[in-house]
Input
Amino acid sequence: MPAVANPAVDTPSVQATQAAVDDILAELFARLGDRQDQLLPMLHGLQDSAGYIPPDRVPAIAAHFNLSRAEVHGVITFYHYFRTEPPPRCVVQVCRAEACQSMGSDSLLEHAERTLGCGLHGRSADGAFGLEPVYCLGQCASAPALTINEAVFARVSPARFDALMAAAMPREAV
Ligand code: FES
Output
């Protein structure tokens, strides 16, 4: 069984200030250059460092790569992975791949949806929790699996889900 992490403690804040986003962009522009095949690495780097891709930075990205804003926007919206708003403080990803489905991930997902009050790709009403699908976490022999702020947990029953969530993000701390 994987080590139990406390995502609220172990995961650094990924939400950058506006000034920090400018610094991140400048570093990425300098490091990756302006070849158009570097657009995807740039978007990944920006999201990894800033937590999301601020829509108001699309014009600068487009200008850097000599692309239209529509072309950059098209790439961002094509990939579900990219976010255009700050991420929730706690992101739960439930594995939807075959081994986990055969071991009860459907009911685990239903429990997560009821508990968080949102469906897949949604957010809880207070915006603190996000629920996303993921496809295989390398824990097939210990299914069903999920992640909480990128920490992987296996053999997750609904009761264990409740305990993990309480440890990760006590409601009074949200
Ligand atoms: S199918 Fe879920 S961890 Fe592999």
